């Protein structure tokens, strides 16, 4: 009897929780969420690699400066790292576009009533991701320029 | 009535085509193609549904001439209405297939106005479903009217 009362209460609580939580997300909504997570991972990968390139640039410029490299040589070396960053950004943009496109096709195959909203959501996240990648590239480039100026001023 | 349905479907397609033609670009050309394919499907639906209504009218008149009971006439009319329903749902399935195929092609182009293009193609599909739904009601009503005419003969 006591057990029945407990399970009854549990069922009431679960019911109440589901009412407050609203309707369960559809397969398309879950898929769109997954795509947004994947786009976030592209950005994380870019930041990790961009930071590695920046660290390498700073170390290399310091090393060259210690060895008495000219300003021109330092500038050339810095430009190489800036180009690497640009390539990394372009590659990550391509990956973000591919990720979003694959997701769009999967959403079209589900073809739920909210299809256009789901695609719009993923497209917005893609735009944000690409914008963040471009901002990130600019910031890394500024950091390399600052490192170059430090070494030239040394 | 039939002509009015065709006109409505045609007018909607013309409107979408006019809007998309102004925008231009390969993605919008795909939207135009999608609208045209849906228009062709709508025309085919209208032609087949008209044939079914004509066949229903002829069959009911023939049965009535042969002295069929009202129940017999009703059974026959229901058969034609079922066929019209099947035709309507087959058309929806066809429209969904056509639109999804264009969605994928538009996505592969991935132009800056992707969302607008998808939205336009989706709107054309919605218009198709809306117009064919109304046309379907009209065709079914035409069969029902033919049944009532024969039963009252």
What does this structure look like?
The complex is a heterodimer of chains A (154) and B (153). The radius of gyration of chain A is 25 Å and the shape is rod-shaped. Chain A has 154 residues and is mainly α. Chain A has 4 helices and no strands. Helix content of chain B is 92%, strand content 0%. Chain B has 4 helices and no strands. Chain B is rod-shaped. At the A-B interface, helix 3 and helix 4 of A face helix 3 and helix 4 of B.
Task: Tell me briefly what this model is.
The complex is a heterodimer of chains A (154) and B (153). Chain A is mostly helical and 154 residues long.
- How many extended strands of chain A? 0
Radius of gyration of chain A: 25 Å
Low-confidence stretches of chain A: none
**Number of E-state strands of chain B:** 0
Mean pLDDT of chain A: 90
Mean pLDDT rating of chain B: 89
Please give the share of residues in helix of chain A: over 70%
Q: What is the overall number of helices of chain A?
A: 4
Gross geometry of chain B: rod-shaped
Content of β-strand of chain A: under 5%
Low confidence ranges of chain B: 1-7
Largest interface by Cβ-Cβ < 8 Å: A-B, 12 and 12 residues
Furnish the topology, listing elements before pairings:
The complex is a heterodimer of chains A (154) and B (153).
Chain A: H1 2-21, H2 27-66, H3 71-110, H4 115-153
Helix pairs in contact in A: 2-3, 2-4, 3-4
Chain B: H1 2-23, H2 26-65, H3 70-109, H4 114-152
Helix pairs in contact in B: 1-2, 1-4, 2-3, 2-4, 3-4
Could you list some keywords that capture this structure?
heterodimer; A: mainly alpha; 4 helices; rod-shaped; B: 153 residues; mainly alpha; disordered N terminus
